[in-house]
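[job 0412] stage=fold_complex status=start
inputs:
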Amino acid sequence: MDIVVCIKRVPTTDAAIKIAADGKSIDPTGVQYELNAYDEFALEQALRIKEQLGAGSVTVVTIGPKECKKQLDDALARGADKAVLLTTTEWIHDGASTAAALAAWIKTVPCNVVLCGRQAVDSDNNQLPANLAARLGFACVTEVNKLTLENGTFTAERDIEGAREVVTCRTPAVISCQKGLNEPRYANLKGIMAAKKKPFVEAAAQLAPRAIEIVSLTLPAARAAGKILGQGADAVPALIAALRNEAKAL
Amino acid sequence: MSNIVVIAEVRGGQLKRPSLEAVTAAQQLAAATGGKVTAIACGAGIDAACAELGKAAHKVVAIDGPAFANYSGDAYARAIADQVKAAGASAVLMAHTAMGKDLMPRVSALLDTAIVTDATGVSFAGGAFTAQKPIFAGKALMTAKALKAPFCATLRPNNFAAATSGGSGEVAKVAPPAGDLLSVVKEIVASAGGKTPLQEAKVVVSGGRGLREPAAFKMIEDLAAAFGPGVAAVGASRAVVDAGWRPHSEQVGQTGKVVSPPLYFAIGISGAIQHIAGMRTARTIVAINKDADAPIFKIADYGIVGDAFEIVPALTKAIAEVVKHK
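[job 0412] stage=fold_complex status=done
writing structure:
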C-alpha cells in the first residue's frame, strides 16, 4: 500500500500571535515553528499500516517555505521513506486552493491512502482532508481516533456530538487523524542517520488560483483584569457571593 | 443566482438545532442578496425533520430514501452538490458539527469553489460574501472574502438564534441518486454515562497538573456534579491529557476543544497560552491556583490563591447548598 502523509509546519502552540503591519498577515518576529500536532498521529498511523502489511511506502509531503525541510527531515528520521517539499512563500490558509494543488500532485504518484491531521492549528480550517478526498474521488473519514485495516477496507471510529460513529471505508481513502489515535514515536539516532540517505524532492508548488482572500486579521478584545478574592478555603464565601450577585453566574 | 442554501443535519430522524441556526444566517444573507432560502436534508423517513425546516425555509429539498438511512460523506455530498446547482445558490451554509466538518468540504470541492469553516459571522455586501472566523484557536480573528461562487461556509454553533418562522412549508422529495457508497456509517454508539458534552455544558470545571495525580480528578468531578445533572462537564489541560490522566475528549485548548460556557473553573491550571486559547471566551472565569503569579489570574474574573485540595471541597459544598435552595 502506498501511503501519502500531508503535513504542515505551524507556529508552536505556545506562540503569542501578533498581526503584521499590513493587517492581513501574522507578524513572524520571534515565532517558533513545529510540525502540526495532529500530523504526528497521521505519520505514526502511516508507519503502523506499512509495518502491519510488511510492504508499501510512506511519502510525506508539504506545501510551504524551504524551512519546512526540518519537519520533513524529522518525518524521514521517524521512518517515512520519501519526502516532498512543494515550495511557496505564501501562508497556506485557503483550504480549496491547497486541496486542489495537493490533489494535482497526488494524482502523479502511486497512492492508495492519504493520511492527514484533522486540522492545522494555525488556520484551524478542518477542511483539507475531505476537500482533497472529493477532488481525488477517494473515500474519506474525518477526525478518526481508532482505525483498523482488514482486506483493504478500513473500519474507523470517530467522536460525534454525544456519541461515537463506526464507519466502514473502502480504499483508496483519505483519513484525517484525531489525537488519541496512537502514540507517535520519536526519531532515534539510527533513524536520523538513515534519513540522510532517503530521497528528498523539492519543487515549486503549483498553487491553484485563490478561492478566498484575507480582508483583515485582528486580535480579539482583551479580557479585563479580574480580582483575587483571597487565600484558601476562607475565600469561598466571597467567591459564591461574587458569582451570585456580580457575575449572575449561579 | 441569489438564493442561499442550508444543508441541514438530520440524525435518527431528528433535525439538529444548529441547522436552524444556519437557517437564521441564511435568512440574513437572503435579505441582502434578494434571494430565497432553500434547505436540503438527507436521510430515510425524514418527513418530521423536513416539516420543521419548512417553517423557516422557503423551500425544503428532502433527499429521502433507504440508501441514505446511514450517513455516507461521499454519497451525501454528490447528491447535495447536484441540488445546490439546481437551487441556483450563491451561498451554501451548514453547521460546523462533526457532520458539517465532514460533508461541507466535500460539497465545496465537487463545486470547485471557496469555503470558510468554523465561521462566527457571514455577510453579503458590495456583491461579495465575507466570513469571519477565529484562527489559532481564537488568538486571532480572520475576515475573508470569497473569490469563487457559490460561497460555502460552516458556522460555529451557538452564534445565531434558531429560526422558527419565515418558511412556506413547501417540501420537494427526491430519491437518492444511484451509486456506490465509498464510506458509510455502520453503527452509532451512544456515549456511556449520559455525560454532558463539553461544548454544550453551561459550566465547565477543568483541572490541570496542579492536582498532582489522576485520582485528584475525583474532586473535579464532584464539583461538576454539585451543579446538578446535565449542567456541568469536566475539562482538562493538555499536560494532564498528554500524561494519560484524562481522555483527549476532555482537553480544552488549542489542540483540544474550544469552549465558551457561561461559567468556567480553571483549577490547578497555570494558564499556558494554548489552554487560554480554548476558554478565553467563557463569560465568567474562576481560577484556583497555588501560585499567585500564575498567568491564569491575568484573564480570570475571580481568583483564589491556595491549595486546591483545601479549596475545592469547600467550594463543592457551597455550590451544592446554592443549587439545593434554587
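[job 0412] summary: The domain at 192-324 of chain B is CATH 3.40.50.1220 (Rossmann fold).
[job 0412] exit 0
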